[in-house]
């Protein structure tokens, strides 16, 4: 009889313990459910699921749920940032296109004036031509960027003399540098052979030279460095009132040093440079050196003659 009572007591104790654990499990699950509802309702906060449970299954579940919440919030923040960038970009593009179009409309109306002299007509036609060229450059930049970002652009790699490409690209701009009183010192290097795409490399150099023309104060220089894997092209120029806060975003789309965008520039030039260099397995970065000069450093893959 005593043994039977002992068994009954043990069973009763086990029942009480099990019932308590089940009640606690149900209560903790309810608490987690209420927390999740609050997190969903206020998803913009950094709130995560919290629990004081000792149940290993619930602890693992809480960790997994928090991982999902963190990943989802990170993805949502990235999406929100891209949407803001897109809105800003569309605003900038609208401004960049509207400015020359408005100017074209104004000059076309002025050209219809029968009282204009032949000299005035020539001047206005010259301005209209420049505005059309500016618009064409914008459209070409948009098209090239769309190709780069859609992986439609193909590359034909070959041995290239980087120094010759720099000289070849610079010559058409010689008069522009003189007109702006910008002295350009180009270091010669007949051993700067790289492995790259000719058209893409020329476009990189072209965009960088145009950047110098737009922002150099009075002088610029081009140098080469040689490393085991790369030929490093450095293009340096003095600048006026450079905002160093922009240096980390210099390759972003539509970033331009001209905040007013009064010069009609899209800011796509350096972004295209970055994409073309990266797609050729190179590296590019920008910084201000100890002389307060703006420096663009581009690493092109070095040509290695394996037949030697």
From TrEMBL:
InterPro entries: HATPase_C_sf, HATPase_dom, His_kinase_dom, HisK_dim/P_dom, HisK_dim/P_sf, HssS/ArlS-like. GO terms for cellular component: plasma membrane. It is found in: Cell membrane. The chain crosses the membrane at residues 6-23. Its EC number is 2.7.13.3. It is a multi-pass membrane protein. Pfam families: HATPase_c (PF02518), HisKA (PF00512). Keywords: ATP-binding, Cell membrane, Kinase, Membrane, Nucleotide-binding, Phosphoprotein, Transferase, Transmembrane, Transmembrane helix, Two-component regulatory system. It catalyses: ATP + protein L-histidine = ADP + protein N-phospho-L-histidine. It comes from the Bacteria. One of its GO terms (molecular function) is ATP binding. SUPFAM superfamilies: ATPase domain of HSP90 chaperone/DNA topoisomerase II/histidine kinase (SSF55874), Homodimeric domain of signal transducing histidine kinase (SSF47384). Residues 92-285 form the Histidine kinase domain. PANTHER family: SENSOR HISTIDINE KINASE CPXA. This is histidine kinase. The lineage of its organism: Bacteria, Bacillati, Bacillota, Bacilli, Bacillales.
